[in-house]
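QA checklist item 7 of 12: single-chain prediction sanity check.
[x] sequence parsed
[x] length recorded as 160
[x] structure emitted
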Amino acid sequence: MAESEVSKTYVRPDNTAVLNCPHCGRQKVIPVDSFRGYKHKLKVKCSCSKKFMVSLEFRKRVRKKTFLRGTYTNHSKNNSSGNLVIRDISVGGLQFTSLDAQDFRVGDEVTVEFALDDEHRTEVNKEVTVRDVRKNSVGCEFERSDEFAFDGPLGHYVMS
């Protein structure tokens, strides 16, 4: 692995991360409490004298990049509706872009409808709550994410 390549390391529930040297295979466990709340890339020097880059991932769930077209109905805004493109998805929520992204507010209750790009074109109709609004994107949490646990269609899709 070239020094400029960055490997992703997931933070464990005890707020530690295991750093794996791509050159010699040595592992080191480090505390990462001080990095929480930020996306951090760390430059690490192994005891073998080689340097490598690590990106700390604090998410609890795996998130899959997507380009899924669908629609939304914003029940908090008089059932206004429109088109969206889902940019990433997990079993707990999704992030989408829309021409109307600036009209959403944290706490809005929304229904999203889309089809997965799996072999069955699985249709998904989910109630979500808006948790984050940025300039061009809206982050949402599924109302009842246990329905689509890892053993359901969405779980299989996300993990594939």
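[x] summary fact logged: Residues 153-159 form the longest helix (7 residues).
[ ] second reviewer sign-off
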